[in-house]
Inverse folding.
């Protein structure tokens, strides 16, 4: 995995501040869904495109623990 951009770090921080709807899933508005689609490190997230829900993968959870 390559180094995360500031944009991707900000996306992970935003995701972690969002309410957990159970099992780590977070609802993403239609307006913000393009951020999910453009997120470069797709291996760090799991997506439910139909419900516009996202959660961090196991690898993503580890990365989020080390973000300042």
């Amino acid at each position: 995995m390559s180094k995360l951009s500031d944009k991707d770090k900000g996306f992970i921080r935003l995701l972690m501040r969002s309410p957990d709807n159970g099992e780590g899933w977070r609802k993403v508005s239609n307006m913000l869904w393009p951020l999910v689609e453009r997120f470069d490190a797709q291996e760090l997230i799991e997506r439910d495109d139909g419900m516009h829900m996202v959660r961090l993968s196991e690898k993503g959870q580890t990365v989020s623990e080390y973000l300042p």
DSSP finds three helices and three strands in the chain. The longest helix spans residues 6-17. The chain has a mean pLDDT of 94.
